Amino acid sequence: MNTKDIIKGRGAQQNTTNRFSEFSSELRDDFLEFCRLEEDEADSNKTLYLPIFPKTIVNKVDSPDVGMTYSLNPYQGCEHGCIYCYARNSHEYWGYSAGLDFERKILIKKEAPKLLEAKLKSKNWKATTIVLSGNTDCYQPAERKFEITRACLEVFLKYRHPVGIITKNALVLRDLDILTQLAKDNLIGVNVSVTTLSENTRRILEPRTASIKKRLETIRILSEHHIPVNAMLAPIIPGINSHEILPLAKAVADNGALSIGFTVVRLNGAIGGLFEDWIRKTLPDRADKVLNQIKECHGGSLNDSRFGIRSRGEGKIAQQIHEMMHLAKRRYFKDKVFPKLNTSLHHQYKDGQLDLFDQF
């Protein structure tokens, strides 16, 4: 790896220009030289937590190929720093960059539990699974400090409402007490993202995520507590982790996962430039090969925005990925089923406790 000028502990290595802003900034050589002479840091690389106050917290997902109907994101931006993350572009709507700002300026929604409770108590709301982390990871490092995700889970339990979780952080195990109670009524499903079995790859691809060992351990412990786990082998990046599909599938199956899912990487919006800058700095020897193979999956582009195709890819390389994933499912998940979550209890708990009149 070429370590020169690498910003340690971060995925993105620069801040891209916000497409919605009329202003742009750059680190000029004369400014960097001034900082050097003054023995000052041009960039502190510290994470900032910034409170925001949305009026609603449950989001309707209109995209037909995402696999969820409603999502809830306690945080915007994500310190995990996964270079491929599709959520990076959403940070531009808040006036920040999809690059380093996405990893270092984390927006905190402290009122999320209260907003969620109001939503679940609404007379017009009918129970359907709400997924925590439809955009950014609900168990990213900020959760250890703010515990917003845990407070939301307490609300879901109080109202006996089904909830899904997507994470790549072992911090989810902190909330086993709540998760096991939800699981008793089939109200919880956890999706654990496992992108590679190589720690070297993980460190540069997803710098502030839990180790692979920790993630596999998380799947095992959740499964042992009868909490259903789907492993997301996503994204599959040709030339980086595409050769790991079968070993990945076996590893998550051996640790108790009931199913697997996947996507083929697509680098939409600002992510294309960020990814290319990242790979030329971290994996320069294979940068051209990887970028060309990604393009081959998307008709010659790093991105494809067509619903139903954008996350699946097309062409020979994408077909090989699909065939390998089909083989993995047949070999390791033949007799396993991820359960459909229970939506029948919530109407009895609209006021936060069992409605006795519904029992007669």
What's the story with the biggest beta sheet?
Answer: 7 strands, mixed
Gyration radius over CA: 21 Å
The overall pLDDT, averaged over residues, is 90
Superfamily (CATH H level) name of the domain at 39-264: Aldolase class I
Discrete helix count: 12
Helix content: 25-40%
Keywords: Iron, Iron-sulfur, Metal-binding
InterPro entries: Elp3/MiaA/NifB-like_rSAM (IPR006638), MJ0683-like (IPR040086), rSAM (IPR007197), rSAM_sf (IPR058240)
Protein name: Radical SAM protein
Domain Radical SAM core: 64-301
Task: Quickly describe the structure.
GO terms for molecular function: catalytic activity; iron-sulfur cluster binding; metal ion binding. The protein is α/β, with parallel strands linked by helices and 360 residues long.
Description:
The chain has 360 residues and is α/β, with parallel strands linked by helices. It has a domain at 39-264: TIM Barrel. It has 12 helices and 10 strands. The chain has helices spanning 29-37, 100-104, 112-121, 142-146, 148-158, 176-184, 199-205, 212-224, 245-254, 271-282, 287-297, 316-332; strands at 48-51, 58-60, 70-72, 75-76, 105-108, 130-132, 163-167, 188-193, 229-236, 259-264. Strands 2-3-6-7-8-9-10 form a 7-stranded mixed beta sheet. A 3-stranded mixed beta sheet has the order 1-5-4. Helix 3 packs parallel to helix 5 and helix 5 runs parallel beside helix 6 (176-184). The longest helix is centred in the last third of the chain and has 17 residues, at 316-332. It is globular, with a radius of gyration of 21 Å. It starts with 28 loop residues before the first helix and ends in a 28-residue tail after the last helix. The mean pLDDT is 90.
